[in-house]
Specification:
Length: about 280
């Protein structure tokens, strides 16, 4: 039996929260640079240039990439015969609190959301999800999503006969309605299948997959490329100013579902895709 100490996981998550808040992942930087060459609009290219410059300044000065430092979601996937010793929730909450203080991260979490909306003052509690894998190793992933990106995300229970065409129509319509408000160029996480509660989690976790890795499922890889192409044809462009590059990547995660259902969720993320996964 392999035992992971909750306090050590807390220390790891603290460092990950600080890193993702100040450093744009390399795969996102590479994607932005590559798509910039496809942008025919001078204004659009300037927007991407400013985004990349902002990333350099943030990393150099250990400053937040964006003033909206987001909601931290933590995904712990335990390998075979692995247990956690200690107060996992407590240690992870303290980790986020410490990182928020050390990194000067804006406090964005409120309790009693439909009434008093009192700010917790330290970005706690984070969203914590624990799962089990069939492999030997365990992983911990952290993603921080801002309020604008979350506001633009959507879920739909499509008619099962809608098929892939229905999925792509839904995603494109969501971006058409919400994309300009979400600081494009965008990255899309799409969850297909599962259940009403499962699809949004699939969509958000899909964003964890690097943009420079092809989907191991050839059909899903084709679907991802088709989504990017369809969204870019909307012409929303960088910063919402119009242009060729509205989306620099789409990631699809699927799960089996009931014969009478076709749940689809799209988790929209702005260009500041703040996430990291570490194997333990």
């Amino acid at each position: 039996m392999k035992v992971l100490e909750a306090s050590r996981l807390g220390s790891l998550v603290e460092s990950m929260c600080l890193e993702i808040s100040t450093t744009l992942p390399e795969d996102v930087v590479l994607a932005l640079s590559a798509f910039s060459e496809r942008e025919s609009s001078l204004r659009g290219r300037k927007v991407i240039e400013m985004i990349l410059e902002n990333a350099v300044v943030a990393a150099r000065g250990k400053l937040p990439i964006c003033q909206d430092t987001g909601v931290f979601s933590i995904y712990l996937t335990l390998g075979r015969d692995t247990a956690v010793q200690g107060d996992l929730s407590g240690e992870l909450e303290k980790a986020v609190s410490r990182a928020s203080s050390e990194g000067f991260l804006r406090s964005s979490i409120v309790r009693s959301p439909a009434s008093s909306r009192m700010n917790t003052g330290d970005n706690t509690p984070p969203v914590i999800k624990v799962g089990i894998s069939g492999g030997e190793s365990s992983t911990v992933s952290v993603i921080a999503k801002g309020g604008g990106s979350e506001n633009a995300s959507r879920l739909s229970m499509l008619h099962p006969g809608a098929g892939w065409e229905g999925v792509i129509d839904f995603v494109v319509k969501v971006v058409e309605d919400q994309g300009a408000k979400s600081c494009p160029p965008l990255i899309l996480g799409v969850g297909v299948g599962g259940s009403f509660d499962c699809a949004p989690e699939l969509a958000k976790k899909a964003l964890l997959r690097p943009l420079n890795e092809k989907n191991p499922d050839p059909e899903a890889d084709r679907m991802e490329e088709e989504l990017v192409k369809a969204v870019n044809e909307l012409g929303i462009g960088p910063g919402g100013f119009g242009g060729d590059v509205t989306c620099i990547g789409a990631r699809i995660a699927q799960a089996p579902c009931h014969v009478a259902n076709l749940p689809v969720a799209v988790s929209i993320n702005c260009h500041a895709l703040r996430r990291k996964t570490v194997s333990i």
